[in-house]
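Reviewers of the previous submission asked for a worked example of the structure-prediction workflow described in the proposal, so we include one complete record here. The input consisted solely of the amino acid sequence. No template or homolog information was supplied to the procedure at any stage.
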Amino acid sequence: MTTRSRLVQAAAALLDTGGEQAVTLRAVGHAAGVSHNAPYKHFQNRDALLAAVAIADLEALATTFAEVRRSARAPRDKLLETIGALVRFSRQRPARYRLVFSAPTLAKNHPELQAQSTACLAEIMAIVEDCKNVNELPDAPTKSLANLFLATMHGLVSMEASGILQREKGLPTVEENIALMVSLM
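From that input alone, the workflow returned the following structure tokens.
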């Protein structure tokens, strides 16, 4: 594993355990077992390191979505599984989820992050298109449908994270809400 990869993994681990404020170039160097100066040789600044973490996460998500898309499942099940993967990511890695989906300035300043985000969205749109092709979704613009699903999912995830959407309150889960939305279409 390269030093750069170790630094990205260390930054991701720090995000997972301490949130974005825990990620400093010095702390990442220490966590990766390299000198405190090593991160500066691989990343221009902290934002560049955070962008690398987001890119790695988006690459992993896009790979997952592509695998789901190639599976033998029905298109509707593929859509629900893809959205489910995003929901699991939000629950397992909340700080990284926020980094990937709530840092527009980071994406604006790092074109490679924007490109990976676009590739990830393309996988989701392809699954939406597959659903449209078998009449499981209405004949509306694919990008609009994908954005509607993602916006709804992000809103529900936010509600769940803030404690508003709780099973104990008798409310449906994020997944149940998304499945209802897909079935209503």
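The longest helix spans residues 46-70. We consider this example representative of the routine output the project will generate in years two and three.
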